[in-house]
Design brief:
- The chain is of the alpha/beta class and 294 residues long.
- 50% of the residues lie in helices and 7% in strands.
- A 6-stranded mixed beta sheet has the order 1-2-3-6-4-5, covered by helices on one side.
- β4 (96-99), α3 (103-109) and β5 form a beta-alpha-beta unit.
- α6 (164-178) packs across α13.
- The longest helix has 15 residues, at 148-162.
- The model is unreliable at 1-39 (pLDDT under 50).
């Protein structure tokens, strides 16, 4: 596998340094979370030129219904999709591809390559939003932590919940799915952080239990393992400590814990977050369940 360019990793590091201009030492213990095998029949989608492409269907809600296959997909960037990959995407019958990457990321790696008839939807979310600067206790914790890289990743997850611009993009994606106008795919650069939070929120709205929500989230470590190994090997060759960069390339249950903790801090309950933070009313929530559960 051809290693990814280190430029995207450098962009993430630059974002962290911009928030806290201090040296980031190697963490003492930053082992990636072990891959978790879901109880659902995870359906990986082969798309040439893309990774971490999955159907979110198959999970079981608390009421015994199952999330339908063929309606919602998650993935990493589609900017390097080949002609073969475009044909594979065509077979999914997508109505839209929602791109959570920032404008900087799109400029560096390119726009999505999509089949004709699939609407490209720019839904820029900055992983290191300036909103984080207002969260001084958490920012200081990240600066002073031994595992600074991991703490800055966790801080970015707080931003996905706390930043009104990020919430606006998640809301628009949820409403698009609820409209029932056709299958929707959403993605960020690696399909693990912004995409992971979006999926966790959607599955929780659908009533999928926490264990399955986290299993889906942590599966990105398995999906990206080969790519990450190649990337870390390339970075080591140019003198960058892999232990410093690894937290940016993987997911941890603690990252998603942080997002849910921020929901509790800001809104008290998940239900209040959905209605007040996202502006998703009862009718739209019912439409999501009607569309996606069987």
């Amino acid at each position: 596998m051809t290693p990814r360019t280190p430029r995207l990793v450098s962009a993430a590091l630059a974002g962290a340094v911009a928030l806290a201009p201090v040296a980031l030492p190697s963490p003492a213990s930053a082992a990636p979370a072990a891959p978790v095998r879901s109880t659902a029949a995870v359906r990986d989608i082969a798309v040439d030129g893309a990774v971490n492409v999955r159907d979110i269907g198959g999970y079981t809600a608390r009421d015994g219904r199952h999330v339908r296959y063929g309606l919602v997909y998650r993935s990493a960037s589609l900017s390097k999709v080949t002609a073969t990959g475009i044909a594979q995407l065509q077979r999914l019958g997508l109505s839209a591809s929602v791109d959570f990457r920032s404008q900087l990321e799109v400029g560096m790696s390119g726009a999505d390559k999509l089949p004709a008839g699939v609407a490209p939807v720019a839904a820029n979310i900055n992983a290191f939003s300036p909103t984080l600067l207002t969260m001084l206790p958490d920012l200081l914790k990240a600066i002073l932590a031994q595992d600074k890289s991991g703490e800055f990743m966790a801080l970015s997850y707080r931003g996905f919940v706390h930043d009104p611009d990020a919430r606006k993009q998640f809301t628009a994606a949820l409403k698009r799915i609820a409209s029932g106008k056709g299958p929707v795919l959403y993605h960020c650069t690696e399909g693990k952080d912004r995409t992971g939070v979006m999926t966790a929120v959607l599955l929780t709205i659908l009533g999928v239990p926490k264990a399955q929500v986290y299993a889906d989230y942590l599966r990105s470590n398995q999906e990206l393992a080969d790519q990450n190994a190649a990337e870390l090997a390339e970075l080591k060759k140019i003198g960058i400590d892999p232990a410093l960069v690894e937290p940016f390339l993987t997911v941890r249950a603690s990252y998603l814990d942080t997002a849910f903790d921020q929901i509790k801090r800001d809104y008290g309950t998940f239900g209040a977050f959905v209605t007040k933070g996202l502006g998703i009313d009862a009718a739209t929530q019912a439409a999501l369940r009607r569309q996606l559960l069987k």
